[in-house]
Amino acid sequence: MSASETPRKPRGRQFFANPGPTNIPDSVLLATAHQTMDFNDPNFLEVYDGCIAGLKQVLRTQHEVFLYTGSGHAAWEATLVNLLSPGETVLILESGYFSDSWAQMAKDLGLEVQMVAADWRRGVDIADVRAALAADTAHAIKAVCVVHNETATGMMIPLPEVRAALDATGHPALLLSDTISSLGSLDYRMDEWGIDACVGGSQKGLMLPTGMSFTGVSAKGMEAHKTSRLPKFYFNWSKMMTRRHRSFVGTVPISFFYGLQESLRLMLQEEGLDNVIARHTRLARAVRAAVQHWSGNNGPQFFCLNPARYSDSVTAVMMPEGHDGDSFRATALQRFNLSLGGGLGPLGGKVFRIGHLGDLNEPMILGTLATIELTMKVCGVPHQAGGVDAALAALG
Questions:
Q1: Region annotation Disordered: residue ranges (predicted)?
Q2: Among 310, 303, 292, residue whose Cα is nearest residue 121
């Protein structure tokens, strides 16, 4: 193609391998195209109640769930303002771009932030978490905030180990977790793991459009809410509890619930939640087998260097020296119609990310991996050819 020619969009359906938003099943898309109706209509209330019950099944909780029209950041803010008061301290476990964003939000809301620092490539040391909690003899720390699955780095933080650190030190702080890129993809057990508040969003494992989020809250969390003094109105759980829907201070986004009803049917009835988690584990192993193979010949490397914490929903891949991840992604998109995730914050241009969560199967993963390898060949990125064969062996 000459410099004067206009690039043409590749034919065929786009392969979307971004870690969020994710692919939306056709049946979910069709379900969201629902006619307008009164959100107090008994027919809708039946759908709504079923969705709340199903969402609790996915969270594995018997506790309260509050919903908002807004992305995951809205649920972060709602959770902080409903549980805490000005000047109180939160302990945030560093994991990457999103833990840092959560910390900045807390500071902007007037909270004191204490960080447990960590190497983004290896993850937080739980011994450091225990030490920070043990040192807080006055129990100034009111909440411990953990991103369960750090989308930016492809790393999972083991929440049961964080709960164990709290229990071992006898610390009464609330345990808050971001489960935005783990719910419906990784095993998550809110009640069993002693999570006091968990934040989730519609656009990842739940396979919905972006725009709805929620917080699951334990009984201990609800007690803390009674004395919280940070300003809130739309996000105020007390206001929500006076409404029939126990959520949404304002109009309820009905179309989301028809989509959520179908998404929950696919997850809980058609496939089964345990099988959903097992599928993500299986496909993630195939992706990692390919990346491990490509790393030969000074090729791309895993960004996460802690195999025990590899994410089953997203893999971050570090580009070889001298090769730009954003240029690589642009070639994959413009020439082959493959959409990959980019590096966030300080990782911009240094990594690309393969999302393997939500509505996907083996052909979709293999097609994505084959196209990544083709793009490496076209871009002259050093690698060991044969990553797809390695993925096939992992699936076999």
A1: 1-21
A2: 303
Give the domain range for residue 360: 15-22+273-395
Model pLDDT for residues 174-220, shown as the tens digit of each residue: 999 999 999 999 999 999 999 999 999 999 999 999 999 999 999 99
Percent of the chain whose pLDDT exceeds 70: 98
Length of the chain measured in residues: 396
DSSP 302: E
Do residues 230 and 85 touch, judged by C-beta distance below 8 A?
yes
Residues 104-135: pLDDT tens digits?
999 999 999 999 999 999 999 999 999 999 99
Same domain, 286 and 383: yes
Give which of 267, 283, 281 is closest to 17, Cα–Cα.
283
As for how many domains the chain has, the answer is 2
Distance CA 346, CA 368 (A): 25
Specify the CATH number for the domain of residue 349. Answer: 3.90.1150.10
Rounded to whole angstroms, the maximal C-alpha distance in the chain is 69
What are the distances in angstroms from CA 34 to CA 28, 70, 210, 260, 316? 11, 20, 17, 12, 37
Residue closest to 112 by CA, chosen among 66, 76, 71, 143: 143
* Number of helices and strands in the chain (H, E): 13, 14
Rounded to a whole number of angstroms, the CA Rg of the chain reads: 22
How far CA 303 is from CA of 118, 121, 155, 283, in Å, comes to: 14, 6, 9, 18
Phi, psi of 225 (to 5 degrees): -60, -35
Judge if 185 and 60 occupy the same domain. Answer: yes
Phi then psi for residue 6, to 5 deg, are -85, 125
User: Do residue 157 and residue 87 come from a single domain?
Assistant: yes
